Amino acid sequence: MVFRAVLIQLAGALAAWYFVAPLAAPAVFAALQGLFACAIAIGVRQRRGMCLIHAVLLPLGVVALSAGVPPWVYLLALLVTLAFGRNAVGEQVPFYRSSQEVAPKLADLLPRGAKLLEAGAADARLALSLARLRPDVRILASESSWGSYAVAWLKWQLAGKPANVTVTRESFWTLDWSAFTAVYVFLSPAPMPRIWAKFVAESAGDALLVSNTFAIPGVGPDQSVALAGPLQKELLIWCRPYGT
Question: What is the pTM assigned to this prediction?
Answer without folding.
Answer: 0.71
